[in-house]
Amino acid sequence: MLHVLYLVHDVSDPAVRRRVQMLKAGGARVTLAGFRRTTSPVAEIEGVEPVDLGATRDGRFAQRIGAVAKAAVSIGAKLGAMPRPDLIIARNLEMLALARRANGALGASVPIVYECLDIHRLVLRDDFVGRTLRGAERRLARDVKLLVTSSPAFIANYFEPFGQIVAPVELIENKYFETAPVAVRSFEDDSPATPPWRIGWFGALRCRRSLELLADFTRRQAGRFEVVLRGRPALSEFPDFHGFVGAEPWLSFRGPYRNPEDMAEIYREVHFSWAIDFFEAGQNSEWLLPNRLYEGCRFGAVPISMADTETGRFLKQRDIGVLLAEATPEGIEATLSRMDQDEYRGLKSRVLARNPRTWSYDRGDCAAFVEKLRGLAAMPSAYAVAAA
Q1: Are strands 29-36 and 3-8 parallel, antiparallel or unpaired?
Q2: Collapsing DSSP states into helix, strand and coil, what is residue 255?
Q3: Quick check: 311 and 288 in contact, CB under 8 A?
Q4: Which helix (H) or strand (E) segment is 80 a member of?
Q5: pLDDT tens-digit profile of 70-112?
């Protein structure tokens, strides 16, 4: 059985759980180690007890650098008792640095896979900080066996033009992972396709501009549209997230949810899925294909996206979704304010008509990914422990 050491920036991130699920479903044994954004260590993820490398804070880059430096010193002791892994997957740049330290601490030359699912704004800066970070990434990734990323736009707009990675690329989209077959509901099984129209904004809630835009739009519509928010708000990005939402008559925050356990239920409650993010406008936000795009469509929610983004282009190619020309309350009104039952049913029918494999991975996909990793682990390694 392939033994994977998975080094992550935040063991409490739901996306980490999904990757652990995929690896285990594909037949791999997983050792999980990483930082956390929780007060106390995380007890387990999918039956795996994480090796705790300490706490970091969302949005505090300097603090994270300090935590990585501290972990680099102690990682030998943290991992000393574990059997030698066949492969290391490093999620994000800081974990790539620790992967090389782990190789040295384990006294081994273990192949490394670099997983990068977001392009941080700092690495795109055209100054000393940006050049330093890109240089560090090129050096740390000089002999990785594989780059795993989630959007073609990340490759076209960052990795290729900046010459960051010479390794082969594996595109693993942020698709919903189906542990069992999911029945697609008929229109008749859903809540009535009549106002109030509900827009679901689920997942990592970090975009202040989206929150303010949706609040303004729903006030203008005076109850004809409502917004349901679920997930993990990045409180560092909002002056008072809970106070703001609580003061808005047509916004409601209903807390976190479990993925995949709660997905059918939470999307059954909404008509549309907000697949827009201005958090890093002009860069990562325009290039990503977010989890909520795939999850919402898998369960029949009509996605709303900006037309001039990778998500918008993805939807336009498939002739589905609602595409906005401008990110203003007036722009949303121009597109959505005349929504009626017939138009909505037409939009939803096009979403449900797509092959479910467009939106989800199954166990066969997981097995294929693990088999690729097994092939990498079997290749002669070019690493030297002294270079770690």
Answers
A1: parallel
A2: coil
A3: yes
A4: none
A5: 888 888 888 878 889 999 999 999 999 999 999 888 877 899 9
**Cα separation, 221 vs 349, whole angstroms:** 25
- Name the region of 7 (left: φ>0; alpha: ψ -120 to 50; beta: rest): beta
Cis bond upstream, residue 196 (ω within 30): yes
DSSP-assigned states of every residue in 191-240: SPS-SSEEEEEEEEE--HHHHHHHHHHHHHHTTSEEEEEEEEE-GGG-SS
Q: What does each C-alpha distance from 289 to 138, 311, 317 come to in angstroms?
A: 24, 5, 14
- Predicted local distance difference test score (pLDDT) of residue 59: 64
Is 354 within 8 Å of 320 (Cβ atoms)?
yes
- How many whole angstroms separate alpha carbon 162 and alpha carbon 147? 15
Instruction: Record the tokens describing residue 192, joined without a space.
Output: 């009535």
Per residue in 227-244, pLDDT (tens digit) is: 999 999 988 899 899 999
Instruction: Compute how many other C-beta atoms are within 10 angstroms of the C-beta atom of residue 231.
Output: 22
Residue whose tokens read 């229109």: 187
Return the CA Rg of the chain.
Answer: 22
State the DSSP H helix or E strand holding residue 112, giving kind and residue range, or none if neither.
strand 112-115
Degrees to nearest 5, angle at CA 273 with 268 and 277: 150
Amino acid letter for position 313: R
What percent of the chain is predicted at pLDDT more than 70?
93
Q: What is the pTM of this model?
A: 0.91
Q: Give whole-number Cα distances, 307 to 287, 317, 340, in Å.
A: 12, 11, 22
φ/ψ (deg, to 5) at 78? -65, -40
The pLDDT of residue 320 is: 98
SS (H, E, C) 160-197: CCCCCCCCCEEECCCCEECCCCCCCCCHHHCCCCCCCE
Quote the pLDDT of residue 187: 41
Of the pLDDT bands very low, low, confident and very high (cuts 50, 70, 90), residue 388 is: very low
- Average pLDDT of the chain is 91
**How many residues in the chain?**
388
In 260-340, DSSP assigns E strands to: 272-274, 302-306, 322-324
Nearest to 228 by CA among 248, 250, 252: 252
pLDDT of residue 35: 94
